[in-house]
Amino acid sequence: MRHILITGASGGIAQAMVPLLKDDFLILLGRDAQKIEKLYASHPKKAIYEIDISKAADLAALVEKIYQDYGKIDILVNNAGYAIYDDFEKFSEEQVRAMFDVNLFALMAFCRLVGKEMKAAKAGHIINIVSMSGKIASAKSSIYSATKFAALGFSNTIRLELAPYNVAVTTVNPGPVDTGFFDLADPDGTYQKSVQAFMISPEKVASKIVQAMGTKKREINLPWLLEATNKFYTLFPNLADFLARKVFNFK
Ligand SMILES: NC(=O)c1ccc[n+]([C@@H]2O[C@H](COP(=O)([O-])OP(=O)(O)OC[C@H]3O[C@@H](n4cnc5c(N)ncnc54)[C@H](OP(=O)(O)O)[C@@H]3O)[C@@H](O)[C@H]2O)c1
């Protein structure tokens, strides 16, 4: 039976993923164990660990405990993450560091701690939920984009380091997904309204992630329109900047 660790287990994408993993043993991490227990009461095989993953000092002991309790992790899904959209000068130093702690440093710590075990076992799959914001810049997402560009660069590098050990690394780079993510990122709903046309369902993202589990897929980019935009952005960065300022300035 596969053992799958998912961070940010209470989130919208996780909620869409869990029902597709009925035959797997799930190791679910989040800040509110009761909430996770309630959400997944019907899942037959699971363990829940209450942890605030922004507390870097707690992560090594947690991973050690999980290996003591269950012996292995076949698939690691680094899913926890959040955004606040605003002009960059409005962020305090604490807010910047807090977002990096969750979106980047925790992801890197799990990759290091679990990746080491996978490397020794010569088997495993790391799936990092990144974002199109890790590929395409847009105004007001400076801090979020910085965390996600870094997460993507990090993932692309460790993929090379872990490949000889039969450990795969997949990044998932969705555009806007219809989850509670926007309660914090876009509390007045303006951005969500402007991107309604390419908003995707968490079920669609979850099904792509679950299909990729156990494969060597490099990355999942969706929807196709934003993937095409990304290719355009890479080929014509000046024109892309112009359009991002004048036409697609949604946040
Ligand atoms: N929704 C989108 O439009 C979108 C688009 C591209 C990428 N993504 C990425 O997809 C992943 C999942 O997002 P989602 O849409 O499912 O959002 P969500 O419903 O808000 O869930 C995110 C989860 O991340 C954890 N988290 C959030 N803030 C945290 C904090 N300050 N400290 C610790 N943990 C925190 C929470 O888990 P616990 O409460 O269980 O701790 C939360 O349930 C994130 O990495 C996000 O960046 C989302």
Structure, explained:
- The protein has ten helices and seven strands.
- Helices cover 47% and strands 15% of the residues.
- The longest helix is centred in the middle third of the chain and has 29 residues, at 93-121.
- A seven-stranded parallel beta sheet has the order 3-2-1-4-5-6-7, sandwiched between helices.
- The chain has a single domain (3-246), classed as 3-Layer(aba) Sandwich (Rossmann fold), CATH 3.40.50.
- Helix 4 runs parallel beside helix 5 (142-162) and helix 9 crosses helix 10 (237-246).
- It is an alpha/beta fold and 251 residues long.
- It is globular and about 55 Å long.
- The model has no long low-confidence stretch (mean pLDDT 95).
- NADP nicotinamide-adenine-dinucleotide phosphate is lined by residues 8-14, 30-32, 52-54, 79-82, 102, 129, 131, 174, 176-177, 179-181.
What's the layout of helices and strands?
Blueprint: E1 3-6, H1 12-17, E2 25-30, H2 33-39, E3 46-50, H3 59-70, E4 75-78, H4 93-121, E5 124-129, H5 142-162, E6 167-174, H6 181-185, H7 190-194, H8 202-212, E7 219-222, H9 224-235, H10 237-246
Parallel strand pairs: 1-2, 1-4, 2-3, 4-5, 5-6, 6-7
Helix pairs in contact: 4-5, 9-10
The structure holds NADP nicotinamide-adenine-dinucleotide phosphate (NAP).
NADP nicotinamide-adenine-dinucleotide phosphate (NAP) binds next to helix 1.
